[in-house]
Amino acid sequence: MSVQVKHGGLLTTIQDLGRYSYQKYGVVVGGAMDEASHKLANLLVGNEWDAATLEMTLIGPELLFLQDSIFAICGAPFQATVEGDLVPIERPVYVRKGTTLKVGSSKNGCRAYMAFRGGIEAPLILGSRSTYERGGFGGLHGGRLKKDDIIPLKDYNVRDNFEIQKDNFSTTRWFVPSYTKKAVIRVIEGRQYSLFRPESIWHFFTKKYKISLDSDRMGYRLTGEKLTFIKHVELVSEGTAFGTIQVPPDGQPIVLMADRQTTGGYPKLANVISIDLPLLAQQKPGDEIQFQKISLDVAQKLYQEKERSFRKLAFILKELNR
Amino acid sequence: MEGTAVVIIEPLGDCGLAVEFGDEVNEKVQQKVTAFSKLLSESSIEGIIEFIPSYTTVTIFYNPLYFLDNKQKSPFHGCRQMVQHLLKKIDLKTNYLDDKAVVIPVCYGGEYGPDLEAISKMHNINIDEVINIHSGTIYTVAMIGFAPGFPYLSGLNKQIATPRRTSPRKSVPKGAVGIAGVQTGIYSISSPGGWQIIGRTPITLFDHKKAQPSLLKQGDKVRFERMTETQFKKWGGAKDECSG
Q: Could you tell me the keywords of this UniProt record (chain A) (predicted)?
């Protein structure tokens, strides 16, 4: 089972839920930037939600199916066509061998995830198939998809395992955040929150911050009102997390994303809450963000609710796919 | 553990927390970081995903759902309680830092160490003396960070401590040995970087094909040993140069 790449798109990489337990050796976690869309795409084609998918950024790839296959695209509503016919997103789609899929771009959002029934069989490196471009490992060859790459898929019999009906499923919209240009991103206080001047903190929560062009899978650089400190404190480097907002001396915040470095030494103003990370990951350069502060307790309750409903959905889809 | 009172436990996002053992870098704090990391590895506690030891802190990532057990006020409080319990088990009479130093051969100067001469001039110490000072010390791996397998080594003699380059290089080759302030370290993979480069080792510090991909871990001891260019070539050291 495999798919041939005719055109890699702008930045298409193989990702799963990331490479855990090696951060102590400096190995970045990586994984899908928008975990919710990644999971949903997998569930729709009957996979476990940690199977590897294609993460497509801004402009999607062109793929030739060398076998019958079932796929689903979730996340930003990228325009996708099979032999010229528009295919729905957020649905499982059946395609025949020899068919070409072209994924275009999207007006809203930044990234879409394509799951194939069975999952992508890229080699497991340190427990994950995620591509880490800077380190040059993971995925197929340590980098983004390029022309003539062959994406190996796990073998399965499409007809035996899946009832092929065009409109068998549709997804529940409540899982899909609307990727508006004015996203409100919720955060909790960071470890060095008290090092910032009160007026800077006020700016941070009242003014909008724009995502700069230098943003990538490692971090989102923001531009806006300059943030200043009460006093200069030289910190020693320590662990960072997905969504950590650190502020270098130039006063422009940086949000650490999936390919973040494991440690950092800039003051941490805040941390984006887990359930808002998918929404943030869908913002592209030029988009504006509004930050809102909530408490850790509320963040953890929201996390719990979201996770429970996701699990429920996973259970239901699994039953349907049986 | 003695001095438990000064340990600070603070959230890092909604799935992590930082355990801070002190606010300055010294051997005693490093001992505690190493001891606590060792306990974490050995206890394999459910709900803990992984941890990152650094100079003064151990950052723990946990699964909030696991700690939501009804009796807990919140996952953070649940995980903090577990950490406090574990802290009591640290026995500081045991020496957790490894005494046996890993020997890293280094070809100093020339094309392999383009900043060595500048460092020697800045401190007014001749080149051989800089090399003797650098290779005559036993360092402790304070943490692994920045890049896969990159060790931050503490213990650098202040006589040769040098600030980072004002503008970082676009490319520093794998194996480059550098100085940044009072730290020394080794580029485990080729990457951009601003450390002052004094030499290069042919030793591989990071190999993603290995189950333990990093040669060094926090708490290890390291010693540098001078090698000739002929030896370096025989060992198959990386040929690419610093650039940018």
A: ATP-binding, Hydrolase, Nucleotide-binding
